[in-house]
Specification:
Helices cover about 55% and strands about 0% of the residues. By secondary structure, it is an all-alpha fold.
């Protein structure tokens, strides 16, 4: 969503989400099981990149 992956931004956002979302939350469990790396925002909208 922010363009190319920036490791510094990824670490920062990971720290924010780690504090806001409980470790036993359903979405955390789903994220640990399913690999969403092949999806992107534009694919979900049906747009071509």
């Amino acid at each position: 969503m922010l363009g190319k992956n920036n490791p510094q931004i990824d670490v920062f956002t990971h720290m924010i989400f780690e504090r806001l979302i409980p470790k036993d939350h359903l979405l955390v469990l789903i994220d640990s099981i399913i690999d969403f790396s092949s999806l992107n925002f534009f694919t979900c909208l049906g747009l071509r990149t």
